Structure formats: structure tokens, C-alpha cells
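Summary for the lay section of the report: proteins are chains of building blocks that fold into shapes. Here we show the chain for Choline/carnitine/betaine transporter and then a coded description of the shape we predicted for it.
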Amino acid sequence: MKNSYFLPRTTFKKGITVPSLLFILAVTFLASFFPQVTGTLLAQMKDWIFVNLNWAYVWSVTIFVFFLLALVFSKFGSITLGDNDAVPEYSFFSWISMLFAAGMGIGLMYFSVSEPLSHFSDPTFGQMDQIARSKNAQLYTFFHWGIHAWAIYGVVGLSLAYFTYRYKLPLSLRSCFYPILKDRLNGTAGDAIDTFALCSTFFGITTTLGFGVVQLSAGLVEVGLIESSGFSSQIVIVLVIMAISIFSATTGVSKGVKFLSQLNITGAVLLMLFVLTFGPTVFLMGTLSEGIGDYLNQFLSLTFNTHAYEPERQPWYFQWTILYWAWWISWAPYVGLFIAGISRGRTIREFICAVLILPTAFNFLWMTVFGNSAIWFDQHEAAGQLSSLTANADELLFRFLDYLPAPGLSSSFSIFIIFVFFVTSADSGIFVINSIASHNAEKSPKWQLVCWGALLALLALVLLNAGGLQSLQTMTLITALPFSVVMILFCYCLVRALVVDSYYYNTDFSPATSYWSGELWKERLHRIVSVKTSENVEEYIGTTVRGALAELAAEFNSKGITAGIDFRANPTDVSLTIRHKQIEDFVYGVRNESRLVSSVLVKEVNVPNVRKDQANIPMSYFGDNRIGYNVAYFTEKEIIADVLKQYERFLELSSDVRNEIFTDIASKRRN
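The coded shape description reads as follows.
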């Protein structure tokens, strides 16, 4: 106990943190000291998966898209991510800014020019004319950065937000398996799930940081701030980025992360408006309209197309579409955890619509402005020089800006935006990693955030220097396939939980309470807290129910209506039957049924009527096979009233001509 006083306080969960660190360090060691062997082996594994199991990625992503769209139009869409009266913690603009910066981040800057130009100049589409290649480039860029990408993030984010804020579970991937694992969430299975999420997040941020630093250094060379993009320059860039990211993460999401995300999105919009204004404006707005139309028109064919009948296109397809699906899936734990953490108080419908539509719309506008401008300049002013640089994606953005006014200023502003994108990705990543490692502890010491940031910077530099970033990226893509299966299980668990949620909040009072007043409250209370044994129910059916039905049968017979009491096998099943020749018989019965009781309620010491995991109840049933209800709290007179209510319904329905298909039993017998 004395020694613990000198140890720093920590919220790390050993079952998650220790195996994660061991795996991260082991993979980094292999990628750094054996980059060629490791890279070759992992590349072969990735190629085999992409070639033979590409359909699995296609179907997984398709399921995610249509699953979320179905929820939007379902009755579950109005459910709040939190208590029913919860309100959003962040303004709409702050919320969108943060989820957008975490979801796409630096990728928008890196691929905004290079991807459309790559599709435009790819030999795979060489048989097309120039106009067709331009449209094709925009279409596939929209496809890769549109609804499908955000559906992947949306499934993880929605599952996490729902189980965290609605079920009051920790913000961790294991919580999404609550309907399956329940109490086992806190065991080895739960730790394994969170360990996978931590490693996936760490590797994704490390590779992004490493590759992005290369683009940043290329931009700094372009504007003349540094002479070369050597390793020494990259060290300085990484240290500066991580220092600011750590400071932002330690100030909390509501301060540093929110401010930088808003700054990020504002800067990106200003840069986009600059290109739109000084680029081929009329052409861009026209192609945006056509591009959205093409995307919507070919949405289904793009979604399901595996190019099985076009083997000549499959290498391109594996390199772009399947790689993108794998990349988005591998990033889903990180992005999903972050956007779930900022989405308390949103409804499911609001969450899905915002996550799918708004970032997708912005991506379409962004990719049109930059990508189509680059293609237009390549055709009209650059004489193909831009498309010839697609292999050097790090420099392509800055070469593109040379064809616009004030290239030095715009390149410097682009570097600033890239820098801020890096910081927002890194600080939210640090926040998420620490949240996973500490099992979403409410208050973690700041030194933990500092340690994660320092480790990210160190390993990124080690891999940059050793040339192992590509191996790390490849391994991340490989892990996407098993995680896609995990995400499908998320969908299954979420549906199960939503069905229970809807049932819980929409279930009305028991029919047995419809006659209640305060007059017999002590008797009611006694019945509620009584132990629900089979003997108790049999006694209730044999006395109260049987007495009520017998009295009612006698009254029916006195009115000239033949009614009888039936016993089926034993006194635990008694019914009143009025038999007919032309219409269905009227039957009102009560039987003894057993029902499973929640194990949670069995363990609750302050519930006196539960002794085991089964309880017996007197359940009503009817001649037309409708679902009955619990009549345990009816008095004898209330049972009589309930039978009369059902008999009045029976006569009302039998008198309606529209119901003859159900009630005309005589014609059915003749046939």
C-alpha cells in the first residue's frame, strides 16, 4: 500500500492495454527490421483476399447501406440516443465538423486531385473517349467517397452510441454485443474485442500520420519553407503535429478538438470556394449536377458490381473499390468510437441522415471542384502534365494549384489545412485510444494521453525511417475482412435491442389493470408481491376463474343461450364455450402457463415475488386464436366483465358482412 502512493494513478485496463501494446510493438518490430519480407508476405495475403473474397466486402458494405436506410424509414428512427428527454451536447455545426474531420480528414486533401486524375488517365478505361473518361472518373470518385463509406462509419457509430447512451454501457465495441454476451461483456471476449479496436485504431492513425507527413513535407518544399523532404524534416513535422495534438486532446473534446474541427472545416470551405471561383466555375457547377445524377442513376449497379464479367477491369477494381471498402472498414472502430462519443441526444433518424447525407454532399462538391478542375486544366492548359504526375500524389495538389492565381498563397493555405487535418485526426485518435484502453473511464490522468501521443509519433517515425509503413497499412487492410463480420453482428445485435426497446417503451398497462381503482388496493398489492408458483395459479383458476365462468354460464343459459364450462385435462385449464352452427364458437378460457424470468430480476433482493427463473401466470385464450393476456389480478366480477367485453366484440365482428371470411364456419364445413 505504501508503494502505491508513489505510483502514478492510471485508468488503464490491463486486459486491454497489455496485449495491445505487445501486439503493436511486435508488428512494428517486424515491419521495421524485416520490411521486405513482412511487406511481401502481407501483400500476398491481401491480394489473395481481394481476389477471392472481394464479394464479401461488397455484400458487407451493401448490407450496411441498406440497413441504415431501413432504420431511417422505420419506427425505430425516432428513438433517442440517450434518455428520452436527452438533448444534444454539441451544436449541429460543431457536431458535423467533428465527425467530418475525424471521418475523412487528410484523405480529402490527399485524394481530391489525385484520384479523379488517376481514374481519368488509367489504361483500364483507355477505350473510352475523353468525355466518357471524365464522367467515369467523377462517378467512381463519388462512389468511393459517398454514402457507402459513411454507412460503414455509421453502423459502428450508431451501435456504439445506442448501447452506450440508451443501455448505459461503456463506450467500447464490446458493448455492441450486449444482446449476445450480456454478463460476459466484462470477460475475456470483451477484452479481445476492445484489444482489436485499439490496435486497429493505433495502426490506422500511425499509417495516416506517416504517409501524410510525406505530403506535408512535399508541400513545404513547394512553397520554399524547407529545401528537401528528408527524414530530418519529417521528424520536425511529426513532433510539431503530435505536440499540438496532445495539447488539444488533454484540453478535452469540448475545447481543443471542437475548436480545431471547426477551424478545419472553415479553412477547407474557404479553399474550395477559392478553387471554385478562380477555376472553370460554370463547368464545375454543371458537372456537379450531372455527376450527382449519374451517381443516383447507377447507385444499385455500382453497389453490387464485382466486375466478374470484366476480368480486364478487376485489377483496377481491387486496387481502388475493394481497397477503399477495406480501408473504411479498418478505420471504422476509430471513427465510430469518436462520432458516437459526440452524438448523445440525437435521434437515430437524425444521426443516420446527418452521417450519410451531409458529409457525402460535401465530399461530392469537394471532389467535383478539385477533381474536375484538375481534369479540365489537364485537358486545356497543362497538356496532360497533371495526369502524368498521378504516381506522385504527394505533390499533385500543389502542382494543380500552380494553374490558379497566387499559387504560393494557395499552397501555403493548403499546407495549413493539411496540418490542421492532421492535428484533428491525431487528437481525436489519442482521445479514442485512451478511451478504449481505460474502458471508457470518466477521468483519466493527462499523462496517459501524452504517452499515447508520444508512442504514435515514435512508431510513425520508426516506420518512416525503416520503410515499414506500407506493411502496416497492408496488415490493417487484411484485418478489415474479419471486422466486417463483426460489424454485421453489430447490425444483428442492434436490431434485437431496438425491438426490445420499442416493446419496452410502447407496452401499455396490462388489461387486468383496466378495472382498477383505489378501492381494493391492499388486495392488489398482496397479489402483486405474492410468489407466482404453479400451485398459486392453479388455486386461482380453480376458484376465482372457475366460479366466475360458472356464474356467467348459468346466466347465459337462463337467457336461452347454451353455454358450458370445459376442463382440458386438469383444473389448470378452464374455459367458457358457446357453440354455434353457422359461425365460429365463442371461447374464453384461462390456462396455467410458465414464463421465463429475467436473471437480473431473480438476483434482485428487493423483489419478493421472484424465487427462480420461471414464474407461472393465468393466461387467457380465445376461440379465434388471438394472443391472450395475464388475468392474475382480476377479481371474480372483473373476469365476468372481461368475458362480456370479449363476447360483445365477438358479436359485433360476426354481424359485419366484411368478416364473413372469418366467421362463416358453416360454408367451410360444406366445402
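Put simply, here is one thing we learned. The domain at 3-499 is CATH 1.20.1740 (Amino acid/polyamine transporter I).
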